[in-house]
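dumping these here so i dont lose them again. two proteins, back to back, each one seq then structure tokens. dont judge the mess
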Amino acid sequence: MQDFYFYIKLGLQHVLDFNAYDHILFLLALALPFTFKDWKKVLLLATIFTIAHCFSLFLSVYGILVMNVSWIEFLIPATILLTALFNLIYIKSKAAHKSIVLHIVTTAFFGLIHGFGFSNYFKMLMAEEENKLPPLLGFATGIEISQVLIVTCMLLVTYLFISVLKIKQALFVIIFSILIVLVTIPMLIATFP
């Protein structure tokens, strides 16, 4: 059980590491167009991201699929950029056209990419483990807890800007999406294979 808690802590540290802020940036972009009334959608997206992230770790740890690390390191900021750009389109679309289906599909795909970005390090940690499933579940639990914390913080920031400071939601999403794009562009340049 002590190992399980170790992997929960590792999952928490993986997401909440401010030195490797790409995970946080992606989650902020993911939750950005939503408000507290959409908390179930945001929680669903965070959970789908966790499942996909851990599924790619599973594929890698068991040697089923191994990806080129240099391309994955480039694709991670690409997923952040695409999510921020999608927010600009999503916020301008009419309410009747705002389906979460595209969010779900892209979040799952992007979760796979992000998981492969951590897979080499995770495989080294798991090298001595005979049963790899409990550590993987512990890691997934840590990831989910930290992601729920981040998206909840984003919903609080959204509430502050929209409800307290009375900034229109569309303007808020546009400004923050542009900021995320500007932060992500140097990451893309630095990681281009």
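---- next one ----
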Amino acid sequence: MRIVLLGAPGSGKGTQAKILVKKQGIPHISTGDLLRSAIAAKSKLGLAAKQVMDRGDLVSDEIVLGMLKERLSETDAQKGFILDGFPRNLVQAEMLSELFAELGLSLDHALLIEVDPDEVVARIAKRAEIEGRSDDTEEVVRNRLQVYKEQTAPVADYYKEQNIVSEIMGAGTIEDVQKRIEAVLRF
């Protein structure tokens, strides 16, 4: 099962990904984790990414896609995976589709976890308090939500055109959301 998780920051994507990993036995692939691992391993792509990051620039989509291509070729990803953090915009969604075509893969599901923006702010404020994070202020969170609305939300429309989006109500307990996802995935 090949899944892309979509949703605003604080919607519960990471939490639900961990649950799916345990239940499905497929890897959770986070592009942030891929970048950190490639840099730590000093791979060719990791060194290229480090140079870009050291300048304070964003790592190009081409570098991220190269890392993703390598990761999707690993043995544990052959029976499926959960992508989180990519694609973040329409260009990346189109590039991912091209990569999948090149690898002979198709995406089975795009799960869009929908949460009310005020609930997201409350969740992230709670997380910031628990984890001692000072960067998760209401102003910062609301800005991230605006960026999500402008750049990432249209990715859901891209996948809706392919008839693979399932909208999941993200309100309630972790278990409530998990049950809704399981109903969509039919397991």
